[in-house]
Amino acid sequence: MSKAAEIDIASVSKIYGTTTAVHAISLKIPAGTYCCLLGPSGCGKTSTLRMIAGHESISSGDVRLGNTVVTDLPPARRGTAMMFQSYALFPHLDLIDNVAFSLKMKGVEKDARRAKALEMLKLMQLEAYATRRPAQLSGGQQQRVALARALITDPEALLLDEPLSALDPFLKIRMRAELKKLQTSLGITFVHVTHSQEEAMALADIIVIMNDGRIEQAAHPRVVFERPATAFVARFMGDHNVISGRVISHQGNRLKLSVPAGGDFLATDVGAAGLSDTADIAIRTDHVRIGAPSEEGLGFTGSVSNVEYRGSSVKLTVNGAGVEDFTAILSDTEFFANPVKVGEAIPLSWGPEDAIVLGRLTH
Ligand SMILES: Nc1ncnc2c1ncn2[C@@H]1O[C@H](COP(=O)(O)OP(=O)(O)OP(=O)(O)O)[C@@H](O)[C@H]1O
């Protein structure tokens, strides 16, 4: 019953006056995918979403939905529905009529559209409020009405602009699960703009990480986490130590990096890099252990500058070998078996597969 559509974004740019907000991005979002556009404020996520929706003109390039080029189509003829961050509900209508509104415009008969609207409200756990007006709801409830209203049009793709940002933390997590369940049961393509790494990791089949109007990486969350493509992705997703230095040797898939006034580090080149005489490597914080390395370059000795207890884990910050604020996340069991203190000098190490060479975007 679902009618999902692939979204094909081909060399799409957005220029506002003298600002290029989106630089010729290309991306294919397969039909039925939950896609999160993730990145810092101003990176071009919302502009990209609004160009897919048709609420913003496309400066150059094309957007295709299924087999249709929608670049010049108005929003209502694209087969997409957008859920806005500002809920845009009608203040004088009750929830049922708000949600049923687009069906009314399509000429759907009253009982049928009200029944469908009530079904959508039930999906959002709002049936008890069906006869209220939007002003009698909390912000979070209003947002769920907006979601119900977008979905009632039976879109091929639902576009969501920061849909969870107005909700309190508990509701946010509950609604996050609801969104995923909804997307899975409807089977349609969701494109969801978010600032939150955690939200994107929890929801997405594809995370698209944007920076300064460009796509740094588009991949499954596990790939993004395990194989960040660039230093930006590794830093933005967190849980990696990113070290920059000068390349002193590169043999097979093994690279040796020298940090100015510091130590040498080994990393595995997984093929992403277009290497120059400098390189960035990423080391997973949760794969670092206290202890001497098995091989020179797979660890260093440094001074503990901070110890942070996190319940099931402990976060250590260590300075040494020319690296500031190197992070190691140890399990609580591991840490408390041999606790260390601030100011102590400790050896840290990791395995050859835990340090990878990062690529760089060529613009
Ligand atoms: N209507 C506009 N006129 C001029 N510049 C704009 C306009 N809309 C956005 N921009 C600029 O384009 C860039 C990208 O904005 P966009 O809203 O797409 O980013 P974003 O990643 O969604 O940011 P946020 O997370 O803060 O919403 C920013 O530099 C922004 O200032």
UniProtKB/TrEMBL annotation:
InterPro entries in UniProt: AAA+_ATPase, ABC_SmlMolc_Importer, ABC_transporter-like_ATP-bd, ABC_transporter-like_CS, Mo/tungstate-bd_C_term_dom, P-loop_NTPase, Transp-assoc_OB_typ2
One GO BP annotation of this record: quaternary ammonium group transport
A GO-annotated cellular component: ATP-binding cassette (ABC) transporter complex
Gene3D superfamilies: 2.40.50.100, P-loop containing nucleotide triphosphate hydrolases
GO molecular function: ATP binding; ATP hydrolysis activity; transmembrane transporter activity
PROSITE patterns: ABC_TRANSPORTER_1, ABC_TRANSPORTER_2
Domain ABC transporter: from-to ranges: 7-237
SUPFAM superfamilies with a match to the protein in the record: MOP-like, P-loop containing nucleoside triphosphate hydrolases
Keywords: ATP-binding, Nucleotide-binding, Transport
Family per record: Belongs to the ABC transporter superfamily.
PANTHER family (alphabetical): SPERMIDINE/PUTRESCINE IMPORT ATP-BINDING PROTEIN POTA, SPERMIDINE_PUTRESCINE IMPORT ATP-BINDING PROTEIN POTA
Name under which the protein is recorded: Putative spermidine/putrescine transport system ATP-binding protein
Protein source organism: Neorhizobium alkalisoli
Lineage: Bacteria, Pseudomonadati, Pseudomonadota, Alphaproteobacteria, Hyphomicrobiales
